[in-house]
Amino acid sequence: MAISDVPESTVTTATATVTTVQTDSDLRHSSLRRRPTSTGGLFDAESAAQDAVRDSCSDDSLNCKNNEDVKDRKTDHAEIDNDNAVQNNVTDQENVTDVTDFKFTYRPSVPAHRRIKESPLSSGNIFRQSHAGLFNLCIVVLVAVNSRLIIENLMKYGWLIRSGFWFSSKSFRDWPLFMCCLSLAVFPLAAFVVEMLAQKKSISEPVVVLLHIVITTVAIIYPVLVILRCDSAFLSGATLMLLTCIVWLKLVSYAHTSYDMRALTVSNEKIAKGETVPDTLDMEYPHNVSFNSLAYFMVAPTLCYQPSYPRTPSVRKGWICRQLLKLIIFTGVMGFIIEQYMNPIVQNSQHPLKGNFLYAIERILKLSVPNVYVWLCMFYCFFHLWLNILAEILRFGDREFYKDWWNAQTVEEPVHKWMVRHVYFPCIRFGVPKGAAALIAFLVSAVFHEGGNFIPKRCMVHLS
């Protein structure tokens, strides 16, 4: 009977190791369906190689060094094989999961209705859905309908656009309006001189108020008289009237804000002397009359004066060019609608009190659609394109020139801020009821809106 050199316990351990390696390989083979990669066996092989290296190192140092190199290479290959095995294992598990889900999810026996659901257009679910597709459909229908109307109008009337509506034969003789436009810069300069005198206390406060009233009154009456006395084109008159209203609103804001800052300065001086002042005046606000701040305010896209404004870091020249191109396109669209649709309807209509009443209603309804388009183009050109272009050039930061007025909840921000700041709350502080203050602000806004539309149209009537 031969005697084994290896102890029995060692043989048992080796047998167990082989069995473990086979068991792990079988598990991986059944789950991954690929050639088995024995991680456990690999680690056991490394242990055996390390033992062999240690035994050989005791005999020969050179062989020890070579065996260490072999060990390092084996370790690197083992790590690479281990990473590949883990990646293959994850990929195969995902594939098996996808196949399993596909087999058992889409079987005929699986229930197709599992929850209580409402239709997308039901009253309780309509506002939770995205209506982008319906919006796109409405845009397509709108474009198709208006394209048909344009073709029908061109076939019926031909090309009706004439230059006389925008630039009449007297456009080159509109120099009084042009000179009036340039002379509007005199009024902010006069207001600045008055504020300089008020800061130096050369004139009393009642005189300051009186001078500002005179300046603002002349600033609004003088251009109106020029427009009414000169037979000018519609565009020239409308431009001058718009600039006149803007200058008047800015002058009022400048005078009112400067008056309030002087009051705050006086209150701070009284506080420094130990006198008591109302809590509303107890605040820090230095009043320094600066020509640069006034000049920036006169060209900035705002109607409310303040010494400084939020500024953007840089100017985007490419963005300005794109907005200018949009401005030119939409201005042309607005002129096309006016000349090609609105003028023929008005010229072919009878006086509502001299003709058929139903015919007058039909003319008004027919005129309402292009009128809405013109007002939308006007809003987009002025409040969005032009004011943003001006703000970008001047690096003006606050560009909330309008809110969602199409939801009938807000109004234009520049005029609204001016009305609240210089009309509504001053009326409230003077003891006027809120309803009456709101009515006063509404009437002031209505006067300027209607006056800005009526006076240039009166010139157009003279031309026709």
Written description of the protein model:
This protein has a domain at 16-103. Helix 6 packs parallel to helix 8 (234-272). The longest helix has 45 residues, at 61-105. The protein has 464 residues and is mostly helical. It is 70% helix and 0% strand.
Secondary structure: elements and pairs:
Blueprint: H1 8-32, H2 39-57, H3 61-105, H4 132-157, H5 175-183, H6 186-199, H7 205-229, H8 234-272, H9 291-299, H10 317-347, H11 357-394, H12 413-429, H13 434-463
Short note summarizing the structure:
This protein has a domain at 16-103. Helices cover 70% and strands 0% of the residues. The protein has 13 helices and no strands.
The overall strand count is 0
Can you summarize the main beta sheet? none
Radius of gyration: 42 Å
The average pLDDT value, as a whole number, equals: 75
What is the overall silhouette?
A: extended
User: Helices and strands: which structural class?
Assistant: mainly alpha
Stretches where pLDDT falls below 50 for ≥5 residues? 1-71, 279-285
Number of continuous helical runs: 13
Element-by-element helix/strand order: HHHHHHHHHHHHH
Distance between the termini: 135 Å
Strand share of the residues? under 5%
Binned, the helix content reads over 70%
